[in-house]
Design a protein that fits this description.
It contains six helices and nine strands, in the order αβαβαβαβββαβββα. The protein is α/β, with parallel strands linked by helices and 200 residues long. It has a single domain, classed as TIM Barrel, CATH 3.20.20.70. Strands 1-2-3-4-5-6-7 form a seven-stranded parallel β-sheet, covered by helices on one side. A two-stranded antiparallel ribbon has the order 8-9. Helix 2 links the parallel strand 1 and strand 2. The longest helix has 11 residues. The chain is globular.
Length: 200
């Protein structure tokens, strides 16, 4: 989320967590402070995930206190020890792993005790999403109980394929570029159409 009015238009949808990117290199960067950012994150309607890439612990702490973050989504090379230290700020940890083959899942074992959730996205050179899918069948090799988010190029047309995924640890979906009008601006109609298809 990047604009207050867009956030307000989505608050009635069955979405659990809104994400706010605090990585300056991202086109979805929400800024450091100021009236617009305070307005953007003023809502208490949803839980709030701050998205960080190799940020300092102090930086994460400042944003948590200023904006009432509930989750830290860590997209960089953060170590298990660093994740634990962020967790001690009373934030739930979503640790991101970029995958494209089964062997990419091996590193998650080091984070079992320091992350609340994993997020599997398509492998890329730079941090952040690619807007492309990886082969979701890779997830059959994931046998841990830590719940995970599925990410990577999910769009409105993917509801049927997602409903066919029968994995006990699949907790949620990370919905981003496939539902955007422009970076940081979500299309409410696309999101509603997609979420309606997931209704039982």
């Amino acid at each position: 989320m990047k604009e207050p009015q867009n956030r307000e238009s989505l608050e009635e949808l069955p979405v659990d967590i809104f994400g706010y990117i605090f990585h300056p290199a991202s086109p979805r960067f929400v800024g450091q402070s100021g009236k617009d950012t305070l307005s953007l994150l003023a809502s208490t309607a949803k839980e709030k995930a701050g998205v960080f890439v190799n940020a300092q612990l102090e930086t994460i702490s400042v944003f948590q206190k200023q904006f009432g973050l509930t989750h830290a989504q860590l997209h960089g090379d953060e170590s298990p020890d660093f994740c634990l230290r962020v967790r001690q700020l009373s934030l739930q940890i979503i640790k991101v792993f970029r995958v494209i083959e089964v062997s990419d899942l091996s590193v998650v074992h080091d984070y079992i005790d320091t992350a609340d959730y994993f997020l599997f996205d398509t492998r890329s050179i730079e941090p952040g999403g690619t807007g492309k899918k990886f082969d979701w069948k890779i997830l059959d090799a994931y046998r841990l109980e830590v719940p995970f988010f599925l990410s990577g190029g999910i769009g409105p047309e993917d509801a049927g394929a997602i409903l066919k995924i029968n994995h006990p640890s699949l907790w949620g979906l990370d919905l981003n570029s496939g539902f955007e009008i422009r970076p940081g601006m979500k299309d409410p109609q696309k999101l509603k159409y997609f979420l309606d298809q997931l209704e039982p």
